[in-house]
Amino acid sequence: MLTNLQLELLKTFSRPLPESQFLEIKQLLADYFAKKVDEGIDDLFEKNNWDVNEKVSEWSKSHERIPYNSK
Questions:
Q1: So where are the chain's domains?
Q2: pTM of the model
Q3: What is the pLDDT along the chain (71 residues), one digit of tens a residue?
Q4: Which residues make Cβ contacts (< 8 Å) with residue 13, sequence separation at least 6?
Q5: Where would you tag: which of 11, 22, 23, 64 has the fewest CB atoms within 10 A of its CB?
């Protein structure tokens, strides 16, 4: 099942695009979603009253990996 965004993009770009336009649109979408991630991280820090330097330092010292067990 396609999302509403996928359906709209299929309708909008039903004709071939030059490679340069394709790459430009691809970059626009990547920039948009990167901005949304940045905003989400900012909100997370604000809601939790986290200091950026303290939290990043804390995360850099944590060990969250799950050990690999070959069977």
A1: 35-60
A2: 0.66
A3: 999 999 998 998 899 889 999 999 999 999 999 999 999 999 999 999 999 999 999 989 888 777 777 76
A4: 25
A5: 64
